UniProtKB/TrEMBL annotation:
Residues 9-98, 124-178 form the Cyclic nucleotide-binding domain. The gene is PKAR. One of its GO terms (molecular function) is voltage-gated potassium channel activity. SUPFAM superfamilies: cAMP-binding domain-like. This is PKAR protein. GO terms for biological process: regulation of membrane potential. It comes from Symbiodinium pilosum. GO terms for cellular component: plasma membrane. Signal peptide: none annotated.
Amino acid sequence: MKVKWMHVLCKEGIAQDSLFLIHQGAASVTCQGQRVSELKSGDIFGELVALGLSPMTTATITATDTCFVQELHSKILLPALEKFPEERQKLRQLAALRMEWRYALHDLQNFDWIRGAPVGFPALLEQMLTRWIFFRGDEIMVQGTPGDSLIMISTGSVEVRHDDRVIRELGGMILTGP
């Protein structure tokens, strides 16, 4: 798809399921009306929704130059990534970096058990957090294995299984642990 200057390629908050590849041109990235980044030839966007990590687009992408862009639907992308685990891992790492700035300190304060805590508490936790990104079907914890961590689910949902039976579903801003 060839798009002209100032054309909106992707609008924040829209349900879609495609990853886009910018082969030529440049585009600006805005979140909640604030410009946060610039994309150029060789960059991608839409990976969070294409990978199922976000139900809606997380930014508005506007062409700042004439762009040649290709679209890759998740129904094509996901089976391809299953066949090429190294490429899946590369895309997973890129998605984790993009999510890093999106789900940071301010999101810790959305957890009920942290809301209203002294300012220093979420800041201290933020310094000690290990962030992980999981795809649909990945195991986060396995029944019967020792554990010593508190898992805080910032976005997405998980199934809790016991003896291969789903006993509960948890959504974002929920805690789980051993």
